[in-house]
Amino acid sequence: MKKKWLIFPFILVLLLLLGGKSLVAADITKLPDQALLQTAYSGGESFRYTVSWMGVKAGELLMEIEKKEDKLDAYLIKITAKSTGLLGVFYPVNDYFETEVAGTSRLPATHLMIQNEGTRRNKKVTLYDQSNFKVSYCKNEDPPKEYFLNGPVHNEFSSFFFMRTLPFAQNDETMVPTFADGKRHEVPVFMEGREMLRTIFGKKETIMVRPRLNFKGLYDKMGDPLVWFTEDDFRIPVKIKAKIVIGSLTTSLVDYHGPVGSPVMEEQPKYIEKEDPL
After folding, report:
1. What is the pLDDT of residue 18?
2. Which residue, 42, 8, 59, 46, is CA-closest to 218?
3. I want to staple 101 with a disulfide (CB 3.0 to 4.6 A). Which of 18, 58, 73, 106 is the partner?
4. Which tens digit of pLDDT belongs to each residue from 98-141?
5. Taking Cα atoms as reference points, which of 110, 138, 102 lies closest to residue 123?
6. What is d(CA 116, CA 95) in angstroms, rounded to the nearest whole number?
7. Domain total of the chain
8. pTM of the predicted model, to two decimals?
9. CA pair distance 79, 59, nearest whole angstrom
10. Is residue 95 part of a domain?
């Protein structure tokens, strides 16, 4: 199993590809709920997920959001992805992602990726010129690549928090124009239903949200992902599931710190240790 299959159930919920593909926020058919926007970007929030394949633990994800004290309405989103178990032995992964977002729409300004996968070591930097609708992407010492778009953009991590702020209703679709494989795609996102789910917060009513990935490429090897958000003022993503070529991957929230409290799943695996990614 490749590392991208490990992290994609989480990333697919953000409707984006790793490596700087972006979601065009200006054309989203619904505006965010302002109350949800404030809770999604309260700062001081962390989420830890385990990723399992057919019931076997394959990796962990740690996501954190911090408020930048030296800038107005600016935040840092930090992600650590690690492989574990046999996958960690045969294909060790320790990737780090960092996105700075700013402004009332929490759009990304910069994105850093430190890739440590097997014997590969890569550093990727993406700069977002939101005023001129331009994205610049650079890998290691390669010349930068530029993409000219028709509106301001989110990246895969800033859009995750944006998804938490959208009002959903049963069978109500929101069209999300998505930049992937050098093209712009209209991706419908809809609420599939509700489900009472056992979570680290106890039994919670959740809403089930699914994007329809209607373009080819790597996604044609996977089913459309499904994400469970708590149906409350905080919209905590507690579970994500996606089918792959063999079986399916499930991402489950096992540890949380933030305005909701600090619940921990019983018999939890070891916490991801923070390391210097550089």
Report:
1. 32
2. 8
3. 106
4. 999 888 778 889 989 998 888 889 999 989 888 988 888 899 99
5. 138
6. 5
7. 1
8. 0.78
9. 13
10. yes
Residue 79 — pLDDT band, cuts 50, 70, 90?
Answer: very high
Task: Specify if 273 maps to a domain.
Answer: no
Question: Can you tell me the distance from the alpha carbon of 88 to that of 68, in angstroms, rounded to the nearest whole number?
Answer: 33
Buried b vs exposed e over 71-106: b needs ≥16 C-beta within 10 Å? eeebbebbbbbbbbeebbeeeebbbbbbbbbbeebb
DSSP string, 197-211: EEETTEEEEEEEEEE
In a domain, 268, yes or no: no
Q: Which domain holds residue 57?
A: 3-255
Instruction: Give the Cα-Cα-Cα angle 4, 8, 9 (nearest 5 degrees).
Output: 145
Sign of the dihedral defined by the CA atoms of residues 275, 91, 49, 219, in that order: positive
Which residue has tokens 């650079």? 138
Q: What residue type is assigned to position 125 of the chain?
A: V
CA distance 126 to 21: 10
How do residues 7-49 score in pLDDT, each as one tens digit? 444 444 333 333 333 333 334 446 778 888 888 888 889 999 9
Coil, strand, or helix at residue 26?
helix
Write the burial class of residue 150 (CB in 10 Å: 0-12 exposed, 13-18 middle, 19+ buried). Answer: exposed
Residue at 165 is within a domain:
yes
Which tokens sit at 41? 């970007």
Give CA–CA dist 18/199, Å, rounded: 28
Closest CA to 98 of 117, 116, 80, 121: 80
